[in-house]
Specification:
By secondary structure, the chain is of the alpha/beta class. It has helices at residues 10-21, 34-44, 53-56, 71-75, 105-110, 127-130, 150-162, 188-199; strands at residues 3-6, 26-29, 48-50, 61-64, 85-88, 117-120, 135-136, 139-140, 142-147, 166-169, 182-183, 186-187. Helix content is 34%, strand content 20%. It starts with a strand and ends with a helix. The chain binds NADP nicotinamide-adenine-dinucleotide phosphate. The site of NADP nicotinamide-adenine-dinucleotide phosphate has 25 residues, from helix 1 and helix 4.
Amino acid sequence: MSYAIIGFGKIGQALAHAFARKNIDVTVASRRPPEALAAEARAIGPTVVAKSPREALQADTIILAVPFGEHRAVAKVLPSWKGKTVIDATNAYGVLPDELGGLPSSAFAAKSFTGAKFVKGFNHLGAAKLATDPVVEGGHRVVFLSSDDEDATAPVGDLAKQLGFAPVNLGKFNEGGALVHARGRTWGQLIFQDLFKKEQ
Ligand SMILES: NC(=O)c1ccc[n+]([C@@H]2O[C@H](COP(=O)([O-])OP(=O)(O)OC[C@H]3O[C@@H](n4cnc5c(N)ncnc54)[C@H](OP(=O)(O)O)[C@@H]3O)[C@@H](O)[C@H]2O)c1
């Protein structure tokens, strides 16, 4: 398996730390040329290598860590996404549901990556927390996964485990996955919190 992270901002770098911690090779790319990212990538670890988006997208498994609206630009870099797995770490926070045709944001984004296995994951933790060692207090920090393609989730769960996380499969985007989807200005976690407050 080969891995790439597209977007080398807060989330991209947090995930790069997770790969570096386990000595797993990963390429990282953003809109800036690879030379502009090289020093920061090297500082994270020797297994983190900056490349151009086109080169990085040769990987089998690609983590999207760009602002939600940029998924289209990333999708256009490759002529075909067949055989690829895309892990969507984006949140469409602030994007109105009408702009997404009422779809969960990952179902909407997946339409741009025809042929890819598309899994949402690594999107519910703040970047600072995501960057830290997920093995805490004798346990493994959870990452939630969801996908409309049932076969796609297990390999992403395996990657999450390799990185030290405990994956939890929530099912389809508009079912369990909705709990970790931003919708307009609401967020599944907030729904949990509201319910929790009502129960108290
Ligand atoms: N920050 C968080 O705590 C957090 C938590 C969970 C999920 N998220 C989600 O994760 C995603 C990234 O957030 P972030 O906070 O990491 O943002 P960020 O710090 O602004 O970083 C965004 C990165 O995406 C790159 N980028 C933008 N358009 C691109 C394109 N077309 N092709 C390649 N790279 C592109 C930028 O590259 P340049 O530097 O070259 O412009 C930058 O490296 C968002 O969807 C956000 O909702 C964020």
